Amino acid sequence: MKKIIFMTSIFVFTLACSRGKAMVVTAESGLRFHTEPKLDATVLELLPNGTHVKVLQAEGPQATIDNITANWIEAEVHEKKGWLFGGYLSEDPVLLEKTDQCLQQTGKAWFQDRCVNEKIAQFLITEPVLFGWCGAQNYHFKHNRKIYIEGMYVPDPFFTSWEIREDQLWIRTRSELSDPKSLVSCQITFQENVVIKTCPPDRDGVVYPSKYKKDKGNTYHFIGECGL
Predict the structure, then answer these.
(1) What are phi and psi of 147, to 5 degrees?
(2) CA angle, 62 as apex, 47 and 100 as ends, to 5°?
């Protein structure tokens, strides 16, 4: 009888300790935060790799996703409560310390093994698409730091790249569509639900920033005659 009481006490203590502990997202492409412990439940948010979550319940239903078997975990993130697949959560103390320092000391997000501006992380994690003027030149961002460029004025679609320089997002693209070898660096900035692409001056020394308004999901459309 004492043994049963002792084992029960350990079980209760273990569950109590699991509640309220911190875990960190380890999915490189982000982890969906669901309203219920199932894949087809409503998604509250896509959490970037490195996001800290507060565990509310560690023993949710078990599932196998991407050949990984783990429990769903009820958690609290950004003052929201929901469920995350535990196969992409870690309680590794070294990783927790790194991501916590990133958040607490700099106020930034942990993305692809570095501290970055949270707006940049939230933008890139969704693999966004910027649709240009009348579909002339469209940018498909990829997690591997690549950008696929295609469109009405791009007869031969091609890949370029994006990079983060001193906490700023830059992309490589063509400066003149008539010259396939001419590439320039353009800066991407953010303003509420608008993304702004600013490239170097044209031949006349004029800068023409391109603005894209966020649509549904991960798409942005050019603001102008053919945009939103």
Answers:
(1) -130, 130
(2) 30
CB 46 within 8 A of CB 125: yes
Report the alpha-carbon distance of residue 207 to residue 205 in Å, rounded.
7
Mean pLDDT, residues 124-152 taken together: 92
CA angle 154, 157, 160 (to 5 degrees): 110
DSSP string, 88-143: GEE--HHHHHHHHHHHHHH--EE-SSSEE-HHHHHHHTT--EEE-GGGSSEEEE-T
Per-residue model confidence (pLDDT) at position 15: 40
CA 208 – CA 211 distance, rounded (Å)? 10
Q: Using a cut of 0.85, tell me whether the model's pTM lies above it.
A: no
Phi-psi region of 67 (alpha: psi -120 to 50; beta: other; left: phi over 0): left
Name the CA dihedral angle for 199, 203, 205, 207, rounded to a multiple of 10 degrees: -30
- Asked whether residue 89 carries a pLDDT value surpassing 50, the answer given is yes
pLDDT band at 177 (very low <50, low <70, confident <90, very high): very low
| Cα 38 versus chain centre, distance | 21
